[in-house]
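User: Quick one: structure for sequence A, then sequence B.

Assistant: Sequence A:
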Amino acid sequence: MPEPLPDALARVRDLVLDDQALVRALATGRRKGRTPAWRRVELRYVDLKAGRRLQVTRYDETQAHVSNHRDGATVLDELFAEPFGNWHVETTAQTLQLRVTKSGDAVVGVRARDAEDEPAREHDRPKTRMLPEDDPVLVALGISDQDGRVKPSRRAKYRQVEEFLRELRAALDDAIAAGRLSPSESDPLRVVDLGCGNAYLTFAAHAWLRRRGLAVRLVGVDVKEQSREHNTAVAERLGVADEVTFVRAGIDDVELDEAPHVVLALHACDTATDDALARAVEWAAPLVLAAPCCHKDISRQLREHPAPEPYSLLTRDGILRERFADTLTDALRAALLRARGYRVEVVEFVGSEHTHRNTLIRALATGASAGRAEEEYAELTGTWQVIPKLAELLGR
């Protein structure tokens, strides 16, 4: 049952200010018609020479900003003034999830933790790996050697896997906190990876989700029979063939027994990303993670039409036109998803030194109104005389 938001935030406040029991707290999302200054905020306690402090990590679109506070109450009041839509609080004894409704009330869920965690208080903690180097999945994929050490030639791939899993964790936390996902043993998390190729990230996602304790059923889709055979053999060697299956099909014609909760499309080339986003909308998938690759379609359209004044310099040179096409394509994709009720963030998920295809479209279905998304979309397409493939697939 909904309750007044001030009362619910008072419960969050009591839990966060308990420096003996708090494991971590997370603020994400936004309220209807309002956007907080930060994409997400994480809180935990750390032990410094000066004593225990509340550590606050604020994330913008590109980096994290860390600060430590003696007066946790004051900084918490500042965060409560931000229009976050969700609060997720873990203590040694319970987990509380707060979601702000469209009417401005709060829906709160509390459950006991299965096992008590000992909160980590170290200030300079070694970076926690999403998948340790000796994970059997990394060995099976050839990223790590038989001794459980990442091969020097595969360091970039390992970094890509790690950073993708961090984005998956953040997106999953947001979806659960917002009440869009509630996986359980009786209702496993259904994930589909469209255009999975050799399934590096498919297997990594499954391994991490299982490490998190989630029941999961994952389907990898690729048009190549060779990929299906290879990936199925890897799943059998790992003993996960009952949870990770592969089918040979195109993105636009694959049929699933049940609609997925999470749609992945990682480095699907050119308009294959549009195919994947369209299927996600068709399935009404609560969560979508897409890392586009190539943007040839819009680049071709930019070559066919003169650039509007005074922007001809953006498309005169080939390299600039290609980079602008990348930006324009993903901006239009984001607008179309927002118009379908998704909250969309476009972020960099790994450094360009590891791969230049490092943009990630992260979309969470909220059912929110489109806002200015339709108007902005119309202005962009009209100005540049382009029609993105995703618009055609969505029947615009």
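Sequence B:
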Amino acid sequence: MMGKIYDATWGRGFSALYDRCFKAAEEAGLRDLRRDLLAGARGRVLELGAGTGLNLELYPPSVEDLTLVEPDPHMIKQLRNRVTDLGSAAQVVEAPGEKLPFEADSFDSVVVTLVLCTVPDQKGTLREIKRVLKPEGRFLFLEHVRSPEPGLAKWQDRLEKPWRFLGDGCHCNRDTEAALEAAGFELSDLEHPGLPKAPPIVRPMAKGSASLAS
């Protein structure tokens, strides 16, 4: 019981500090990485794990309709406030990535940025993304991932548990690229930038797009 109370308290604090914690990284290049990724969004767009809405102002005019999904009750309050403050027409939906309340083949683009490290069920979330993405749709991702360097990967494994607590559920050692391919996605435009101003265990990143394997 105490653990649950403490976790809930930390989750509230984490969400309150989220934008400030990422401010240096955003200014050092993370915001540019987000903008470049989102330039590929088209048509009806779904963003999973929208958090506090840091991507909201970066979507291009090619986006006709935007739906923002966020499961965290503390984050979603800030997200709704940002949508209102910006006068955005985006729809905000509180739901987990593993159980999306949308029909199959609903979206032209699905977006995740720094999300697949945290979802409790990564395989389930990727199945849902495949389900709601149109057959010709694009899945855009910007994620920190398991390092290809064995030495750093070992440190990610060693520090995964304490980092998961500090990062409110973030798994620093997830091999997300392999998970995407195992889920049936074909990766393209793949880049490996570093997460600016971040500790080494969360610095390796994967940025790119994916389509449903034929």
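The longest strand covers residues 133-144. The domain at 2-212 is CATH 3.40.50.150 (Rossmann fold).

User: Thanks, that's what I needed.
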